[in-house]
Amino acid sequence: MQSTPPPQAFDGKAFVKTLSTSPGVYRYFDEDDDLLYVGKAGNLKKRVGSYFLKPRMEPRIAAMVSQIARVEITITRTEGEALLLESQLIKSLKPRYNILLRDDKSYPYIFLSGGEDYPRLAFHRGARNMRGRYFGPYPSTFAVRESLNLMQKLFKVRQCEDSYFKNRSRPCLQHQIGRCTAPCVQLITVDDYRNDVRHAEMFLEGRSSAVIDELAGQMEQASKSLEFERAASFRDQVAALRKLQAEHHVQGASADMDVLACRIESAMACVSVLFFRNGISLGTRDFFPRLPLDAEPADVLEQFIAQYYLDRPVPRELILGETLPNQQILGDMLAQQSGHAVELKSSVRGERARFLQMAERNAQASLTARLASRQTLGARFDDLQKLLELGEPPRRIECFDISHTQGELTVASCVVFGPEGPEKSHYRRFNITGITGGDDYAAMHQALTRRFRKVAEGEGAKPDVLLIDGGSGQVAQALDVLRELGVTGIHVVGVAKGPGRRAGEETLVLADSGRELHPGPASPALHLVAAVRDEAHRFAITGHRKRREKARERSVLEDVPGVGARRRSALLKAFGGLAGVEAAGVEELTRVKGIDRGLAERIYAALHG
């Protein structure tokens, strides 16, 4: 029998000879064609050659080079283009050995609607595809809420939902406490309201001084025209704006500025960012990029900036705790992308130096806390390995729980924990149907079957430990499902409540042997199990409550003759939910398309007994 020759090793030295000295991007792949690393170079021949021609390399880099089976090259016109392409590829392809910003959350914005007489200001997160303007992004939900609260006090632009706004017959509480001019009932003219909206826009753009000057001019004009109430209103707005500037303006901060610092310890990195917009501090946010290769803080900051600002508005000034390897190139790329000048400064004095020290202290404190948390979690995983007598610490733990109200609208939850903590992107809920109400065994059997059928078909990850909230009966359901589907290699553990249902007295039921363990309240392993169980319980209850509320909204209106699916949907949409429908009068109900007076009276009677 003729044997197949082993695949020929990649000849890096020969490959380097074929490269040009142009700028570009290189990509390393292993023998399974998985992407290992993406890099950029001002000189491809020199940069790629450094991996294959050096006699000695760092061990982790040498480990990566030993896996390279092929290399792809993309030549660019400039090094700036190479930097931009590198950032795009890292963010989209997530190579194993690159510094990767793990930030999958969309950032909040302030949204100003457009194309209507009375626009609204609102909190927004997600795709920016509605007609209007978006201000931000803001570093946190709190920063947006705080800004919207200030906008209500200063400019009285409405923030209510359109469905609520269009169905008002009298001013709401916001008008009564002086935070809205009640455009819903035309207590303000379109022109005056648009003037307030224009001032709000100017303020959000950072032109608060211009707003003050304009309001002061309008105050003088109203006073000359003997419109003293109007003049007093402008006076109060000017005073409020000046007070706001005095309270919130940060001395030494430019209108748009971010301050970034990085700390690395124990193969973990933290980038702390201080955000300033309109000269006002919006707070701090910490990021923990993946750090697979040995890297210095300057390398991490450069990759962070390139990836973070790739699809976000860039401030005019970035204050950096390190001088970056490609600082000028990165600044030019950001300026070209944003359409305005962007300064990257790593040598600063005065107030900017103070801001930088704040960012550095925050990065170190956050990194220390993260490492301590990870070490605690690691100790708990190690203790669970010993308790369950596993060959190695588990890498993936799943836990299932059931929630219902007197057997109705049953929901099962599945939560996932790994060595880094909860993996929320892998959480799942299952709406349970077709069982006898209150039969938790059947509910558990259905949920586990739906979850592990995919594993049996070769899809999805398999847990090392499967926790079941319950005793031997629930554990038996899990064993039956795994046996039916032919899934093996999973340690099934039941988590039964102890006497008096007190925390720390739980009993662990081992499915393979039927043994019962009582680790006790001091056990780190039990702390981990309890935390996973409690999270599964929380996730199940939340899902059940949402399902119950949805069912209530549907069932009450379904009992009204003449209200079908289309009219029910129109009512809930118009009034923002069942509570809004219940609060509406007959006249307001008749304004909804398809609802005549007779039907409106029947709906009102059904909702009010």
Which labels suit this protein?
single chain; 609 residues; alpha+beta; GIY-YIG endonuclease; Nucleotidyltransferase, domain 5; 5 domains; five-stranded mixed β-sheet; 20 helices; 19 strands; 18% strand; disordered N terminus; GIY-YIG_endonuc_sf; UvrC_RNase_H_dom
Give your account of this protein's structure.
The chain is α+β, with helices and mostly antiparallel strands and 609 residues long. The chain has 5 domains: 12-94, GIY-YIG endonuclease (3-Layer(aba) Sandwich), CATH 3.40.1440; 108-248, no CATH class; 257-369, 2-Layer Sandwich (Nucleotidyltransferase, domain 5), CATH 3.30.420.340; 412-538, UvrC, RNAse H endonuclease domain (Nucleotidyltransferase, domain 5), CATH 3.30.420; 556-608, Orthogonal Bundle (DNA polymerase, domain 1). It is built from 20 helices and 19 strands. The chain has helices spanning 12-17, 44-52, 59-65, 79-93, 141-155, 162-165, 173-176, 190-204, 208-224, 228-248, 297-308, 327-338, 350-388, 440-456, 472-485, 524-558, 565-575, 578-583, 586-590, 597-607, and strands at 24-29, 35-41, 70-75, 108-113, 121-125, 132-135, 256-265, 268-277, 280-287, 317-320, 343-345, 397-405, 408-418, 421-422, 428-431, 465-469, 491-496, 507-510, 516-517. The strands form 4 sheets. Strands 12, 13, 14, 15, 16, 17, 18 and 19 form an 8-stranded mixed beta sheet that branches. It has a 5-stranded mixed beta sheet with strand order 9-8-7-10-11, sandwiched between helices. The protein has a 3-stranded antiparallel beta sheet with strand order 2-1-3. The longest helix is centred in the middle third of the chain and has 39 residues, at 350-388. The model is unreliable at 1-6 (pLDDT under 50). One of its GO terms (molecular function) is excinuclease ABC activity. Residues 21-99 form the GIY-YIG domain. InterPro entries: GIY-YIG_endonuc, GIY-YIG_endonuc_sf, GIY-YIG_UvrC_Cho, RuvA_2-like, UVR_dom, UVR_dom_sf, UvrABC_protein_C, UvrC. Residues 259-482 form the UvrC family homology region profile domain. It comes from Dyella telluris.
